[in-house]
Amino acid sequence: MLIYQKENRLSVAAKVEGFLGEKLLTKEEKTDYFQFSVKAADAKTLIRFLKEDSELGFTYFIDMCGADYLKYPVAMPERFAVITTLISPKLGVRVQVRAFVSDAEPRIATLSDVFEGANWTEREAWDLYGIEFLGHPNLKRVLLPEDYEGYPLRKDYPQRGRGERSSFPVYHAVPGTGPKD
C-alpha cells in the first residue's frame, strides 16, 4: 500500500510539473505528500487541474489557511501565502498548493466556486490575515467584530493587541434563565 501511494505521489508530481512548467515555483516533498508553490495568479488554475483531471481526481477539499512569512528565516517570494490541502480518494494521496500573495495587494481568486468548503476558510483568512478572495460570494468577518481594525495573525500585529479587548462587548447571562433557576 505504501509503495503504491509513493508511486502515486510521484506520478502526481510529474503531472503537475508537466502542466505548470515554468509557473511552478517549487515542488517540495514532505513526509507523505508534495507541496507545490505557485504565484497567486496560478493557484486556481492548478487546483482546478488537480480536481478535474480524470487521472488525478483531487475532489476532496481538506483545508485552507493563511501564512505570514514576514519574520521567516528564509526568503520567500512574497510575504503571504494561502495554503490549500486536497486529497485524491482515487489515488489515496494528498497534496498542498501554496500560493504566494503580494504584501502590497494581498488578493487571490476565490476557490469557493470550485470547492464549497473553501467558503468558510477564505472568510477566516480574510478576517485574520487580510487576504482578499476575489469573487467570494460573502467575504466578511467571521470571528471578529465588523468594526475591528487590523488583522491579528499578521506577524507585525502587536503581541498584546492594540487595547481592543477592553472595548469588546461583554455578554452576561440574564438572571432567571439558567439551568438552576
Properties at a glance:
7 strands, Beta Polymerase, domain 2, 181 residues, 3 helices, alpha/beta
Low-pLDDT residue intervals, each spanning 5 or more residues = none
In CATH, the topology is named Beta Polymerase, domain 2
Name of the level-1 CATH class: Alpha Beta
Give the biggest beta sheet.
5 strands, mixed
Helix content: 10-25%
Indicate the overall shape.
globular
pLDDT averaged residue by residue: 89
Note down, in words, how this protein is organized:
The structure is a single chain. With 181 residues, the chain is α/β, with parallel strands linked by helices. It has a single domain (2-154), classed as 2-Layer Sandwich (Beta Polymerase, domain 2), CATH 3.30.460.80. Helix content is 24%, strand content 24%. The protein has a 5-stranded mixed sheet. It has a two-stranded parallel ribbon with strand order 6-7. The longest helix is centred in the N-terminal third of the chain and has 19 residues, at 2-20.
Give a brief rundown of this model:
This protein is of the alpha/beta class and 181 residues long. It is built from 3 helices and 7 strands, in the order H-E-E-H-E-E-E-E-H-E. Helices cover 24% and strands 24% of the residues.
Chain-wise SSE layout:
Elements: H1 2-20, E1 26-29, E2 33-39, H2 40-52, E3 60-68, E4 80-88, E5 93-101, E6 107-109, H3 118-129, E7 132-134
Parallel strand pairs: 2-5, 6-7
Antiparallel strand pairs: 1-2, 3-4, 4-5
